[in-house]
Amino acid sequence: MLTLFNTLTRKKEAFKPLKDNLARMYCCGPTVYNYAHIGNLRTYIFEDILRRALLMNNFEVKHVINITDVGHLASDADEGEDKLMKALAREGKKPSVEAMMQLADKYTKAFMNDIKLLNIEQPEVWCKATEHIKEMIELIKKIDKNGYAYKTSGGLVFDTSKFKHYADLGKLKLDDLKAGARIKLDEEKKNPSDFALWITNQPNHLMQWDFIEEIIVSDEDFEKLKLASIKNPNIQILEVKDV
Q: Which of 66, 122, 186, 225 has the fewest beta carbons under 10 Å from its own?
């Protein structure tokens, strides 16, 4: 019997998958704007140990790791430059969608080589942010439709007060959080813990989309838009954060 520490209950418990014998792992992957350092790679070593432990205990494993190839802001305050934009400047490259994607591909390959050298097993699924924009849009539409979001001048914001279990894993007391203590105060947010789902006030970002309520495109058009020119502000991808 495999026993793991349950973050929710704060105690060790026998591991029981939600469905049959299938253990599902979703692990936050790299933002590919630079080479990974040993502190970054420690995370994937831990995940690999957990994966191997599950397999050794005869569980079927579906392991998913995302790759943030665009859209990760340099600031935690839902503002600032895209990290890929900063990387382009660092490497002396002219800003363009094509250059950004080439840079992301370069550091993705470097990361893949790192985990190979560390003998880390490949997950069943690698998923790039740019390949799942439509799914993000649909999820955010559902969140908004169900009343868990509100609009500000910056975009669409998740209302943490509407989700009663939001702070359970961290055992946080949201009422005790001080607005502006860690990041710049945003007076439009209803709660200090609220965070952006979709940002609309970053006109200088290379890759953006119009606000989610207005997006209806075919698969063919989506692929064209994803690689389109910086010169057209109506065909760019805007950052979407995990929720």
A: 122
